[in-house]
Each structure stands twice: as C-alpha cells, then as structure tokens.
Amino acid sequence: MTSLDHGDTAHNKNPLNKKLQKILNPKFLSDIDTQDALLALSDFFPENNVRSRRKLRSDTELRGLRLNEEFLASLETVNSALEQLSVEVKSIDSCYKDMTARLGETRERCAEVLEQTATLQKEMQQVEKRSLLLDAFCHKFQLSSQETQLLEQADEVGPSFFQALRKVQHIHTDCQTLIRSSDLHVGLEIMESMAGIQERAYENLFRWCQRTCRSFTGEFPVFTHELKNALQIVSQREALRVYVLDDYVTTRRSSLVRSFIDSLTLGGPGGNPKPIEMHSHDPVRYASDLLGWLHQAMASENELLVALLLQDIPDSVVSVDKSEIPMLLNRICEGASHMVKVRLEQILSNVIDSMDLFRISNNIRFYQNVYHGFLGDNSELLKFVADMYELSLKLFAKHLNGHASKLLESVSEPPFDLEPTIQFTESLTLLRSILSLENTSVAPLEGNRPLLHTIYESLVAPLIEYATISASLDSTLSQAELLIYQINCCDRLHQGLALYYSTGEETGFEKLLVQLQTHQDRLIQEQASFFLSKAKLNIIHMHYLTADKSYEGALSLYSGLESDSLLQAILSLQQLLALPDQHPIPQLDCLRSKKIRDYILGSGMRLVCDFYTSLHSSISDPSNGYGDLKDKLHQPSEIEHLLL
Amino acid sequence: MGVGKSCLLHQFTERKFMSDCPHTIGVEFGTRIIEAGNQKIKLQIWDTAGQERFRAVTRSYYRGAAGALMVYDITRRNTYNHLSSWLTDARNLTNPNTVIFLIGNKTDLEAQREVTYEEAKQFADENGLLFMETSAKSGEKVEDAFVDTARKIHQNILDGSIEPNMADNGVTEKRDTLRPAPPNPPKESCSC
What we know:
Chain A: It comes from Oopsacas minuta. By secondary structure, chain A is mainly alpha-helical.
C-alpha cells in the first residue's frame, strides 16, 4: 500500500481518488475499536437474521444498561473501599504526625545523650590511658602477690626468689627517683612497703641460710649456687651474716667432733684402719695420728670455707674479707682440737722414754708450722699447740734435768787416760741421739732457740759442770792433766754439738766454746812454761819479765839475768832443741783431738819463740852489757824454724 | 732426688712440670675437681714425704684414704725394690677397699730405664694393684693415673663395695644427688 501510495502521490489530490481510496481501504478494518466492537457483538448476535437485527437495538441498550449497572455497583465497591482507604490514610496520617512529634522529641533527647556519650567516651579514653599508666606503674613499683608470697614465705630459695628480691631492690631505688621527680607521698609509701618486704625477705632468706647451714653435717658438704648467692645477700646485714656463719661453724664443729670420735673409736669400715685409740699405747704414733688427723680435717674445712666464701660468687656485692677464713677455721676446729689437746696432755705426762718425748715434741713443732699455714697468727688453736709444745719441752727438760742431776750425783774421778768418764760418755750418747733424731725429724733444729736452750741448760751445762767437778776430785793431777781432761770432755761435747750449733743465737752453746778456749789458752801457757823449764829458761823468763817492766839500766847487771846464767840457759836450750820428743808436755798425748794437740803445741812454742826473740834483741842491745854473748846465740828465725 | 710424687701432683693440679722440686717436708696437699661418669668428683690429694725420717708423720695420712698412689722411679731399681715394704704399710694402714695404684714414673728417661714395664706389671698383677707408667716431666699419663684411680673408687661405690660417708674411708657422698665427693687418695712412695 505504501508503495502504491508512493507511486500514486500525484493521484492523491484527486477527490474521487480520495473517496475511492476511502472505500477501497476502509479504515475500520484496521481499527482495533471496530474489531473489538465486532467481537463483542458476536457474543449476542450469533445469527444475522431479522429478529436478531430487530432485537439488536434493545439488546444493545439492555446490555448497555446492565453494563452501567454493573459499573455502578463496581464503582460503589470502589467507592466504599476508597472511603475506607481514606479513613485509614487519615489514621496513618495521624500516626505519622504522632511519630513525627515523637521523633522530634526523641531527637531532642538524643542530642543530649550523644553529647553525654561523647563526653563519656573521652573520659573512657583517659581512664584507659590512666589504667595503662597505672598498670605500668604497678608493674614497675609493685610486686605480684606471688612474688610477695615467694619472698615472705617461701621454704625453698631458687632463682625466682632472687629475681623477686632484685625487683624489690630496683623498686626501692626507683622510688628515690620517683620522690625527686613527682609524687613524694606515693614514693615514700612504696619505699616503705618495699623496705618492709625486703626486710621480711631478708629474714626469710636468713632463716633459709640457717637451715641450710645446719644441714651440713656430713664430712664434705656441697654448696649450691643459691646458698652462695643467699649468703652474699644476707651478708649485706652484718649481723645476719655473723649469725649464719655462726650456725655454719657450729654445725661443722660438731660434725668434726663426731667424725673425730669415729676415727678415735671406730676406725674404718670393719675396724680397718684401726681406731686411733688402739695405738694409745704407742705415744709417738698416737700423738702423730691425732695431730695428722687434725691437719687433714683442717685442710678439708679450709677448702670448704674457700668454696663457700670465695669461689665463683655471682654478683658479688660484699667484698669478702679473706682474713676471716682463718678465724672461722679456728672456731670450726676448736672442738676437735680440744679433744686433741686433752689427749696430748695425757700422753705427754705419761711418756717414760726421753727420746719418745722428744719425738712427740718435734712432731708438735712440725704441726705448729703446718697449722700456722692455715690459721695465721693469733689463733686460739695455735696457742694451744704452742702450749703443748712448751709443755713437751718442759717435760723434756725435766727428763734431761733428772738425767743431769743423776749424773752430777755420781761424779767420778778422771780416768787414767784423761778421757771422759763412762757416765759422761753415756750422757753424751744421749745428747747425740737426741740431736741426730732432731736432725732427721720433721722440724728443723736451726733457729729453734727454746729447744737448743733447753738442751744446753739441761744437758750441756751439767756435762761441763761434771767435767769441772770430776777434775777437782783427783788432787794428784797436775794442772796440765786437769786441763787436758777438761779439754777432752769439752771437745767431745763440742764435736757432738758442732753440727747443730748455729752461731748468732743465744742458746748457751757459745759458753761451751768460751770454756773450751779458756782451757786451751791455759794449757798453751802450761806447754810454754813446761818447755821453758825443760830448757832451764824458766827462771830467766821470770826475771826477764819482771825486769822488763821496772828495771832501767843494763840488763846484765840485773840479778838472775847475768851473762853467765843466760849462757848456761842458752846452752841447755840448744841441747833441748836437738830432742824434739822432749818438747811437749808428756800428757799432751792424752788429748784426743790431734788438731787441738797441734794447736796447743804450736801456740806454746810460739810463745817460747816470742820470748826468745825478745830476749835475743835484748842481748843484742849493747846497752844491756852482754858483750859478745849474742854471737853464741841462734838467730830467732833458726829457733822458729826448729820449734814451729 | 725423689721418685717424683710432688711433681706428679703438681703436674696433675697445675699442669706444669716443677723442676728443682725440693724434698717434701712431712706432708703437703692439693685438690682438683674431675669428672667421672657424668659426675663431678673432688679429689683431695695428700702428698707425703718419701724420706724414711718422715715416716712417723706420713703414716698418719693413710687413714681416711680412698686410694693410694705408690710411686717408684723406673730409672732406679732400688726404688722399685722398696715397693713391697711400702705396700705392706699401705695394706696395714688403709681400709681393705682402698684402691692402690702402682705408678712407674719418669718414662721420659727411657734410655736410663732399669725396671721393665713387664716386670712391674707382673708385680702389680700379683698384688692386685692397678699399674701405669707416667712421666711427670712430659705429663704423659699423669692425668690418667689420677683419673683412673678416682674412677676405680667411683666404680667401687657404684658396686657397693665402698659405703660412702663412713668414717675413715675417705669417700663422702652428696646426699641428694649421689655425688661422691672427695675421695682423697694420698700418694705415698718408695724413697730414694
């Protein structure tokens, strides 16, 4: 159609054409309304007959009426519904208004709440901050209840205890900063409470230390790290430290006494080694065992004290005074040493043999040095050992004195050979054995003045006295014999002592030397006079000595020193020079020591020579008026050659 | 010149050789802690003088010894010859469980050796002694000698043949942890 329309645009303007067109293309065919109307018509107009056609109008009107009625009814329903709706809408409206009003009200109220909330929130934040601060503060300045309990009530002390205690100390220190920087009151309060806790903790620690120390009853206790640590801390309170160490000392002392009693009475397992008391019949061994036991105990206890007080101490806060160890050691050993003392006193007073007594005395002296190494000066124990040594010396001196007084009660005359008597030799043997024992024992004799003095006073001096008394008993002895006998005695004594005699010590031994020298000097004089009298020079000698002092003038005019007398004497001297056998005093052979013999003879002859030299020069002096007498004389050098 | 007891002790405690060591006067002592069987053992060692003249003092130190080291000089036969008298002393004066260790010292002087290893070993076996040759100078086997002695003592405790904490057996045990504290073997020896 369109194409047709298009093609015939020119024809459209023709009215006929339009009409035709209208007829040809009725619009109603395409009109939907027409179609619907026709469709509706088909419902009540089924057949196209006359009747139908007549009735159509009324039908249509009827139908229209009915439809209108229906429509009306329907509208009424709608209307009522609408009315209801209107009512409801009104109620909704009122509700809404109500709500709006309420909302308004609420909103007003809400604003307040919100404001409050905001304030509260701010407060909360502050509070939280404060809480954090407080927590931090508490953490730094307070102890947990667990820690407090640990410090105040713990039975056992471990690392956590020390940690807590360190914390207390930190808090205490920090409080000082706190006081300076901000809150005086809080700071002081915390400080006070910490001081309280610390005090109780110290108390607790102290009790623990005491308990621990009291448990050290075995022979070799082992110290834990904790104990050393605890002791260090407790040591900050001097008094507590003293108490703890007191407990330690007491425990160790009784432990030592116990094990000493065991060693004394029980010995080793099954009685092997034998108990010390089993050897009480052998005083030397018994004393040595007692002293040796004490030495071993002392060394062990010393080790323990060093381990307890000095070795690997953590965070050492207290400087340890090393000098307290000897003091503690002394107290620990006190009990056992007392037992040793009692026993030593007992055996010392019961020893019969002087040599045994001397051996024990030496051992005591040895241990005096040994103990000194552990205890230093000024210890009670050493005083006791020193007392024991003194006692032993005293008893030893008593033994020797007893011997000496026996010796001096039965002095006998010098024997024919002028050797020391048997009694003298016996005592000398005792002296020698004492000294040789001393030499081979543990304590050096050198420098032991009290002992040397004792030996001198109690044995050497009586022996010298013996020799003198003995010599005086035989009135028939010549002066020379008397001297020879005494020299023999003194020399024997000196020989016995020489090895042990140290010079520079006032022990009395030097008196022996003086004595010996005096005897020798006198014997030298004797020897010189003997020779001179043999040579008939003795008278000359006497006159010469007198004249030399007081006479002024020619010696030849002096009575006794005339040329003739001198000549005769010199002749007899020349005769004697040819007989060397006649020179010494005959008894000089009785001198035991060849060295002394030679010395006496040599020195005697030297005196003679000196006299001769002097005489010779006097004779040679023309002012003495001897004329040519000097030509008949030997030269002094010749005489010396012959005599010396 | 001694057989070297003090030098052995010095070598063991200080790990140094002491030349010109003087004769021991009476008795001296040293300590060292060693490990045996995962346990620390403290050894207390008494070094006794070898010279006869000190015997009255030294014999008191056998008492309470858990072990004894008996030392001779391999270069001097007479020191070896004295062993039996020292052994008699040791047996009489110690308890039956005391470990006795025979030490032939101075192996550094091999050229001057007068006592063979075999001979001494036989003596040790016959008398139930442990035996070792050492040199205090070079330090050879010194550690072993002491440590073996301690081990043997320790072993005896574990076996139950030594009861710790009894008087005069020289062994003490730490109560809670079974730690045998110091056995103190004194050394004693043949003198020259």
